[in-house]
User: Which sequence fits this backbone?
């Protein structure tokens, strides 16, 4: 996610350089290691109400506001850049071919585990 924000120059100070701020109102996780928030305390070149992604080491701009964020997200879904991930319970980037192979292998292993009545049975066929 995260479309281009036309009013913002790359490398500008739209988001304050900190890792937490009581005026960052979290509303979702971003499907990774961070959260999404409405920024009510933007940096010098930011706009109050912008949407930011918050990570362990700081935050970055996602959109100029919630409306733009939702429009960008809908566009990503319509274009196939985001797909529903049943296992994650949310939208995510489509898996790569290698990720598909690993998921399939994981399903096979899980079926073997589920079908075994004991630890010995599981490993005796190997």
Assistant:
């Amino acid at each position: 996610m995260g479309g281009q924000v036309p009013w913002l120059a790359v490398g500008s100070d739209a988001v304050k350089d900190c890792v937490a701020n009581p005026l960052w109102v979290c509303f979702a996780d971003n499907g990774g290691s961070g959260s999404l928030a409405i920024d009510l305390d933007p940096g010098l070149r930011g706009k109050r109400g912008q949407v930011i992604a918050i990570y362990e080491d700081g935050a970055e701009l996602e959109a100029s506001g919630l409306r733009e964020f939702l429009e960008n997200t809908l566009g990503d879904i319509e274009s196939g850049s985001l797909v529903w991930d049943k296992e994650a319970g949310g939208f995510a980037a489509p898996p790569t071919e290698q990720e598909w192979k690993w998921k399939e292998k994981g399903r096979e292993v899980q079926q073997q585990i589920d079908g075994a009545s004991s630890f010995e049975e599981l490993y005796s066929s190997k």
In short: Residues 6 and 64 are 9 Å apart (CA to CA). Confidence is low (pLDDT under 50) at residues 1-11.
